[in-house]
GNAT family N-acetyltransferase (Streptomyces goshikiensis), 271 residues
Amino acid sequence: MIEIAPQQLPTLSRWFPTGSPGLGALAEHVLTTGAGYWWADRLDRPRVLAVTCADHVLLRGDPSVLAPDALARFADQYVETPSRFWPALGSAFERVVPWERMLYVHQAQASVCLPRMPRGVTVRRLTPEDVPALAELDSEDAWIHASWGGPFGLAASGHAWAAFTKGRILSVACTYFLGSAYEDIAVVTVPDHRRERLALACVAGLTADIQARGRTASWCCSRDNRPSRLLAWTAGFRLTREYVHHATGRALVREVRATPVPASGVAAALA
């Protein structure tokens, strides 16, 4: 797979339909924000196309045309692709772990009981002045701004809400992938302030913004992530469908072995 520039992209309607919830908004997000990359098997009339952002990959096309090492660059990422690509994934990486996921869509009419914030905690939209506070999040929480290219991109986007105390961010909810009809959101809360309903307050502010922009919020999480599923339900999201994406491991190293030549053959060649 080779990297291609946005202006080299073919018509995307048959590859990544617009107006899709969840990871379906990833391609639109990359086109809109520039935070991500496009890949194809060839520049002229590509048969396989991929878009990547924040360790997520959408992969489409005809897997039968791929060389054995074509998918190697997608090692240690999360790949969402039709089932016809699954054998190609299995032969490209040392491990491929299926991950059952759940897609929720926000229901504006759902009743949401907003929590009272602890004393000294403020919940508001992020601004560019909040870049240092975002940058101070622990490395395990830094993924929250990866889809915007880092703390500045997210803080300046106008697509994030956070709970603060004394200048420190305790919880962040943000649009992770920005689509034309849906905004797929993500949320993280620092470990020592979980179970304080801070995330719910941040999500409520964010979903109100999304609705005001004329879009709908969506939410993806692992089937096994019960706290995330409970938070989604409490915040007014309802299950729409389930799907599978795959966590890849290291790319397999394929060595080209020389074919042994009998000694008699060597002698004949030198004669």
Summary: DSSP finds seven helices and twelve strands in the chain.
